[in-house]
Amino acid sequence: MTRRSTCFVPGTLALAALAAGCAKPPLEGPPELRLGRSECAECNMLVSEDRCSSALLIEDRGRRDHLIYDDVGCMLDDERDGLGGRTVVRRYVHDHGTRAWLDASSAAFAVTDPKKVMTPMGSGILAFERRDDAQRVIDEHGGEVLNYDALIEARRAAMEARTGAPGPEHAEGG
Q1: Mean of the per-residue pLDDT values for the chain?
Q2: Which member of 67, 76, 84, 150 has the greatest number of CB atoms within 10 A?
Q3: Residue-by-residue DSSP string for 53-108
Q4: Does the residue 1 lie in any domain?
Q5: Residue 5 domain-assigned?
Q6: Cα gap 118→114, rounded to integer Å
Q7: Residue 173: what pLDDT?
Q8: Would residue 77 count as lying in a domain?
């Protein structure tokens, strides 16, 4: 081994250790929502109201980022459309009453008549941490309370009924 190669090995190891120490931990948790500045990833509208907003934590080629939505319906539609190959790590929704971020998998959703309960993009979907809060909205305005898995199917069926066509996951070759 020459003198030059002996110096190279420790230097390389030091750079590798430094790079590993500077690496950021993967992005976790809900995004910081900036009302009037955050843009909906589906419809491109500025998010001006937080009670109906939602977000996806996605991963694309090892890099994590948030996609923010002004309406739960936009998030459902964007994910149904495929997200361009990005992987969903976690889904977040705002509790309509407390405005706190919730994991969508544990939320209760009041699916109402969009003509009776206005949401930014007209989905009529409101999220709540507690099922009885969602039920109170349904008791007043009609509709049904669903968990997230049932909400996905209900939104798919509603969009198919509205457009008369299946979503991309049902298209020929897709």
Answers
A1: 87
A2: 76
A3: -EEEEEEETTEEEEEEESSHHHHHHHHHTTGGGPEEEEEEEE-TTT--EEEGGG-E
A4: no
A5: no
A6: 6
A7: 37
A8: yes
